[in-house]
Each structure stands twice: as structure tokens, then as C-alpha cells.
Design a protein that fits this description.
The chain has 388 residues and is an alpha+beta fold. Helix content is 19%, strand content 28%. The strands form 4 sheets. Strands 1-2-8-9-14-6-4-7-16-17-18 form an 11-stranded mixed beta sheet. The chain has a 3-stranded antiparallel beta sheet with strand order 3-11-10.
Length: 388
């Protein structure tokens, strides 16, 4: 295991060619004589380690990145030959993971026991990996994973299947990232030192049937509940505890491309897949985080005349919608049947030109949260997390 400082000056411990689970990560840190106050906590209450199946990815960026994506018609990194994407893990993915976890733990439970089981996994899905907010900027591009891989195959792999490899494990102060490297088959020799991402039932991350399987090691970040098994009744329950901070993990997918190469999509496709998101409590971009009104204007100006509704991430995997031309729509409360709650700005708040009672048009792709990072095996590993 090695240590370096990223472009923003923060230390990162990393291990190339392996996805280290938390127990193995502790051994590596101890062997090096390093320390981490979060990773070595021994008082963390019991929590679930479910299997999430994710079919969408996201790429968050700031105003400069948005303008670059619009200008180039796609995604590139201005400094290193990797473009980073994060998994979209929303309400539906959490619910299906809970169902699989219960079926695995209690294969003989009855229909009556299943009917009285209360939802519990969402109480633990509290890390930034599940957040609709962004640490990089207010603009989020969300695509089906298969759509991204198909475009990459056509543009960089001669229509052949891209190759996926175990790139590295990164440990920051409180964050663990498991990085997956995606490259052209023509570069197999170049990246042969990185193991292939195989269908290992014990692996943290695998790719199968058009989606990533993420077996989360630490899904909470802030632990507020303890998981309680009740095998006598085939039930799982929770008990509220004193909050404790711990490490949290997530998956990053890095597409390898040469300098100035762009993963291209048509501009209408980009416009359909861009949403706006709120600022997270922690941000990693050096520049200011644009306010919602400024971000809305930025998209409208670039895609001037577009009739596609603009969405805003809010509270769940379904974003809030806004007219692309910002004209006021008919006054009416948003439907309560949506999985997300309305964008709740107080009436007359200058930060938003969209009143609470404004009707919001339907349409667009659902999105979710983000986090990008860039390390590369072929240039200096500088930890830049941001690109077009």
C-alpha cells in the first residue's frame, strides 16, 4: 500500500490491483504503521452488508465542466486519460437489496412473516453514496450503464466488448473508493498487471448482465441504528443508538481514453440526461458552487430553445422537474404520487423563481447521486476528481 497527496492536497492511501475489504484494509494500514481514526473504531453497532444491483451511472460537474461537455459534445478529462462515473443507488435499488438480503437470511420465512416485516435498510443507506446532493457541482449527467458502455465500445473498442479490471482501493480520511478500470481490448497488454473484474461471489464489485453488483462494506457513514436479527420469527429489526461516525465506501468507474479524446453523445441526449442537484455538506471543487437559479440559467443558455423539462434531484431517485424555458406554469401543487418531494423553497425566496405552488411538468430520466475521482496507471496519480 502507498500514500500520496491528491491535487487538492489531501492524503490518500491506495492499493493498486486490489479491492480490499475493510478487514484487509486495516491489516494493510497496520502493517505500514499508519493510522485512521474512523477505520479502526471498535464500537460501531451491527449493520447490514447488502448487495446492490445498479444499472445507472452518473457524472457530476461544475459550470466549467458543463460548458466543456456542451462544447465537446461529451465527456473527457482535461488532465488525465480517465473519465470517472459513480453508481446511481436510489430508493428502488435499496428496496430490492433489502428483499434479497431477507431472502438470503431467512430462506424459509412464510408469506405472513414477509408481510409483517418492516422496511429497515433505508435507515442504514445514509452515506454520500446514496445522497442526491453533489460534492463536485450542481450539474449531474445520468445514463444507463449499458448506454455508456455501448458508446465506449463503438468509439474506442472497435465495437468489441470493453475490458473491466480491478484498478485500486483508495482510502481517504473517512471514505473508501473501489475503482474499476474500463479500457479497450487493444490495451490488454498495457493493463495486464491489473486483475480482470471476475464474477467472484465474494468480491466487493462485479459486473454481470448489464449492471454492477456492489456488496457494500460500509453503507452508513453516520451510524444511528443497530441491526437486530430475530431468527425465531425470521425478522430483522432496528434499534436507535447514539450516532457514531465511521468510514463509508462506494464504487468508481474509470473509462480510459487518450488525451483529448471525448466520449461523445448528441447534444439532445446530453440535455435529456442532465439534472440539477443541491450542494453537499462537503465539497471538493475549488471554485464556488453555483446556486440553483444560476445553474438553471447555465443549462438554459447552453441548450437555448430546448423544450425538454429540466429536473432537480430531490429526496429520492426521482428528480423534480422544471420548464426549460422557465415560464410559469399553471398553479397547482405537485402530485403526491411522486417518489420525490417538491423543491421546497419558501414562497418568495429569491434563490428560486419557481413558487412552491407552481405546477411542474413531467418527463425526463430519473437520476441520483455522485462522486468522481481520477487516478491513472499511465500518468502521475494526482487524485483529480473532476473532468468534463
Amino acid at each position: 500500500m502507498q500514500i500520496e497527496r491528491n491535487r487538492r492536497g489531501f492524503p490518500v492511501h491506495f492499493k493498486e490491483g486490489k479491492h480490499l475489504k475493510l478487514a484487509d484494509l486495516r491489516k494493510e494500514i497496520q502493517r505500514k504503521g499508519w493510522s485512521n481514526n474512523y477505520l479502526f473504531k471498535t464500537t460501531i453497532p451491527k449493520y447490514p452488508r447488502p448487495e446492490f444491483r445498479v444499472s445507472h451511472v452518473k457524472h457530476d460537474t461544475c459550470k466549467e465542466g458543463l460548458e466543456g461537455i456542451w462544447r465537446d459534445g461529451g465527456f473527457k478529462h482535461p488532465h488525465v486519460p480517465l473519465v470517472w462515473w459513480s453508481l446511481v443507488v436510489g430508493k428502488e435499488e435499496v428496496q430490492s437489496a433489502e428483499t434479497r438480503l431477507l431472502e438470503k437470511e431467512f430462506p424459509d420465512r412464510t408469506e405472513q412473516q414477509a408481510a409483517v416485516q418492516e422496511n429497515f435498510l433505508s435507515k442504514f443507506a445514509t452515506s454520500p453514496a446514496f445522497s442526491e446532493k453533489s460534492r463536485l457541482g450542481p450539474y449531474r449527467f445520468t445514463f444507463p450503464l449499458e448506454e455508456v458502455l455501448k458508446a465506449y465500445s463503438q468509439q474506442f473498442c472497435g465495437r468489441k466488448q470493453p475490458v473491466m479490471r480491478i484498478y485500486r482501493t483508495d482510502l481517504y480520511k473517512q471514505e473508501v473508493m473501489y475503482a474499476v478500470l474500463v479500457h479497450s481490448p487493444a490495451d490488454n497488454k498495457r493493463f495486464s498487471s491489473f486483475p480482470l473484474l471476475s464474477d467472484d461471489p465474494d468480491a466487493v464489485c462485479v459486473y454481470k448482465d448489464g449492471h454492477f453488483i456492489w456488496r457494500a462494506e460500509a453503507m452508513c457513514e453516520t451510524h444511528r441504528f443497530k441491526l437486530i436479527h430475530k431468527p425465531e420469527v425470521n425478522q430483522m429489526e432496528t434499534r436507535e443508538v447514539r450516532p457514531q461516525f465511521y468510514v463509508w465506501d462506494h464504487i468508481g468507474m474509470a473509462l480510459h481514453m487518450k488525451k483529448n479524446q471525448v466520449l461523445q453523445f448528441n447534444k439532445n441526449q446530453l440535455r435529456e440526461n442532465v439534472t440539477l442537484c443541491e450542494q453537499d455538506n462537503v465539497t471538493i471543487n475549488k471554485g464556488p458552487y453555483e446556486k440553483f437559479d444560476e445553474a438553471l440559467n447555465g443549462v438554459v443558455q447552453l441548450w437555448f430553445g430546448s423544450k425538454i423539462p429540466l429536473e432537480k434531484e430531490r429526496c429520492s431517485s426521482t428528480p423534480q422537474h422544471y420548464p426549460s424555458n422557465r415560464r410559469k406554469a399553471e398553479s397547482s401543487r405537485p402530485s403526491h404520487s411522486r417518489r420525490c418531494t417538491p423543491y421546497e423553497k419558501k414562497m418568495g425566496d429569491p434563490a428560486s423563481n419557481v413558487p412552491r405552488t407552481q405546477k411542474v411538468p413531467q418527463g425526463g430520466q430519473p437520476g441520483s447521486r455522485s462522486h468522481q475521482r481520477a487516478h491513472t496507471p499511465v500518468v502521475r496519480k494526482d487524485g483529480n476528481r473532476h473532468g468534463w
